[in-house]
Amino acid sequence: MESRVVRPFPAPQSRQDEAHAASSLGLTRRMRRNRKAEWSRRLVREAALTTDDLIWPIFLMDTPEARSPVEWMPGVDRLNIDEAVRQAAEAAALGIPAIAPFPYVDKALRDPTGSEALNTNNLMCRAVRAIKAAVPQIGIICDAALDPYTSHGHDGVMDGERVLNDASVAILVQQAQALADAGADVIAPSDMMDGRVGAIRAALDGDGHEDVQIMAYAAKYASAFYGPFRDAIGTNATLVGDKRTYQMDPANSDEAIAEVMLDLEEGADMVMIKPGLPYLDIVARVKDHFRVPTFAYQVSGEYAMIMAAANNGWLDGDKAMLESLLAFKRAGADGVLTYFAPRVAKKLKAG
Ligand code: PBG
């Protein structure tokens, strides 16, 4: 038979020989059988990534220019409010359920207590109002944390070298109230202060915002992978020290369970693990343990690694992007915050 001649290994001489070869291995279950064709691989596929799984983090800037590139995140730009509205409309048209805006705050507006965070007419509040008015169908998830607003780059207020917990919570609560008043659909506390979820929940309820959800950055690690984000919002140069007294130690896993448990007890509707791929074990463990809506944040450093390798021709960027995001679904995540969101959505749409 012609076809046998081109096989890379010596072909069996007859069907009988082939049967003999099989039985000599003694295999009753051949895992490769289900992988033999695309239709079969599709049929037995366990996890799927869809546009419904995507949350798109975007960067805002108060400038006349529509866009300015984030140097450490190729393909990502900071957007002014008009452009953010256009992008939100495009995201909605692509079927992306939600966006997560982050502000680059003018350095002159930053101070030790992050007071600009409480200005109800700050960049975030204006952007949220504009996006809500123009694109009411897209969800808006707003960070509660002070780092874009503080002169020292920490997520809370300080006494000397110490980041204060309860004093920071008091301010974060007011920040959350301002964002909810502006129209935020979800408040996402990313500050890792103790007790902030409960305090924010109580304040939102007191304001009649009982429908505003809380997505807690429940297990957020003190990670090197946030580097490019700090470039994007301009905190890299300003950050004094590191965040290890409030963000989690990368060595810990049981502690993540305790963090998630507390945030759920305090009223979190959804929990998040961050960073993403290096902490996939935490995503799987949290989902298995609590069975609640669980999200992962594919952070700026993860995005930058894929983009840098792809731009060097060392990785197929599209394939690495899709594989990395599918991994979150396989681990049990209900959705992923990813800077790839519009690119993935377009790719999924094209089929
Ligand atoms: C701020 C915040 C950070 C990120 C999201 N919210 C940075 C930090 O904690 O220093 C990181 C996101 C990313 O790296 O993509 N509280």
Tally of structural domains:
1
What is the fold named in CATH at topology level? TIM Barrel
Bound molecules: ligand PBG
CATH-wise, what's the superfamily?
Aldolase class I
Strand order of the largest sheet: 1-4-5-8-9-10-11-12
Task: Name the helix and strand elements from N-terminus to C-terminus, one letter apiece.
Answer: HHHEEEHEHEEEHEHEHHEHEHHEH
Task: Characterize the main sheet.
Answer: 8 strands, parallel, barrel
Regions with little confidence, pLDDT below 50 for 5+ residues: none
Into which percent range does the helicity of residues fall?
Answer: 40-55%
> What class, by secondary structure content?
alpha/beta
Q: How would you describe the overall organization of this protein?
A:
The structure is a single chain. The strands form 2 sheets. Strands 1-4-5-8-9-10-11-12 form an 8-stranded parallel barrel, surrounded by 9 helices. The protein has 13 helices and 12 strands. The chain has helices spanning 2-5, 15-25, 38-44, 81-94, 123-134, 165-182, 196-206, 227-232, 254-265, 280-290, 300-311, 317-331, 341-350; strands at 54-61, 67-69, 77-79, 98-104, 139-144, 158-159, 162-163, 186-189, 213-220, 270-274, 294-298, 335-338. Helix 6 packs parallel to helix 7 (196-206). It starts with a helix and ends with a helix. The model has no long low-confidence stretch (mean pLDDT 94). Bound molecules: ligand PBG. Residues 143, 145, 147, 155, 190-191, 226, 229-230, 299-300 line the site of ligand PBG. Ligand PBG binds next to helix 8. This is Delta-aminolevulinic acid dehydratase. It catalyses: 2 5-aminolevulinate = porphobilinogen + 2 H2O + H(+).
